[in-house]
UniProtKB/TrEMBL annotation:
It comes from Microbacterium schleiferi. This is Substrate-binding domain-containing protein. Pfam families: SBP_bac_11 (PF13531). InterPro entries: ModA/WtpA. PANTHER family: BLR4797 PROTEIN (PTHR30632:SF11), MOLYBDATE-BINDING PERIPLASMIC PROTEIN (PTHR30632). Gene3D superfamilies: Periplasmic binding protein-like II (3.40.190.10). It comes from the Bacteria.
Length: 235
């Protein structure tokens, strides 16, 4: 089977699909690209069995008839974290605390940064919207650097292209050349639910649905936690 996903879940899905294969559910080949590109390719009718994207993007694809609406399944919740460049060369460690005491601390950090990296997809859109709400667009707009599709913000930090970066915690942890300050504080948190669905182009929708069911088991949730994802909110 073939699947497509955004970059934010690529490492998690690799381990989940290996576990599904070990459980006898079959091999799934996953292509991970920028979330916008992934949604566009699915909408254009490219053949896939499974699609893994932010829930908002999947809802649009379901409304357009590109994924089977009844199969859309919330799988994990991802928090946006804050990173800065590190010269140690060691992989970035996870930090459970918030990066700033409150939203005002985040606002001042953005004002003080020379170049601010953010990702494509819903988390990047939410960050830009938050900066607009804070009235900082005119002040820092020319300092915002959006990561190129398929390029993580961690790479921008490690390469010195930005000195403050915002991306999913799961994307920053483990990246060399990065120090994770923590997740955004609760009063300005940016959380994204990533979901999966069976594509309407699937040649084997029953087996694809079985894979989705496995991804909602306790074993799959344990794998997700090891990648710094939380369970999705209860419906």
């Amino acid at each position: 089977m073939k699947a497509i996903s955004s970059m934010a879940t690529r490492l998690l899905l690799a381990d989940l699909m290996a576990a599904a294969d070990d459980a006898g559910l079959g091999h799934v080949e996953i292509e991970s690209v920028g979330g916008v590109d992934a949604a566009d390719r699915v909408a254009a009718g490219e053949e896939f069995d499974l699609v893994f994207l932010a829930d908002g993007a999947l809802a649009k694809l379901a409304a357009g008839g590109h994924v089977v609406p009844g199969t859309v399944s919330p799988l994990v919740l991802s928090q946006v974290a804050v990173g800065i460049p590190s010269h140690s060369g060691a992989p970035a460690a996870a930090v459970s605390d918030a990066a700033f005491p409150d939203a005002e601390g985040g606002r001042e950090a953005i004002r003080a940064a020379t170049r601010i990296g953010y990702s494509t997809g819903p988390s990047g859109t939410a960050l830009v919207s938050m900066i607009e709400d804070w009235g900082l667009s005119a002040e820092v707009g020319d300092r915002l650097v959006q990561a190129r599709p398929g390029i993580p913000v961690a790479r921008l930090l490690a390469d010195g292209e930005v000195d403050l970066g915002f991306q999913q915690l799961s994307e920053l942890v483990g990246s060399p050349g990065v120090t994770v300050l923590g997740v955004l504080p609760q009063d300005c948190a940016i959380d994204t639910v990533f979901s999966g669905a069976v594509a309407t182009t699937s040649s084997d929708p029953e087996d694809a649905a079985a894979i989705l069911a496995f991804l909602r088991t306790g074993a799959a949730r344990d794998i997700a936690r090891s990648h710094h994802f939380a369970p999705p909110p209860a419906p």
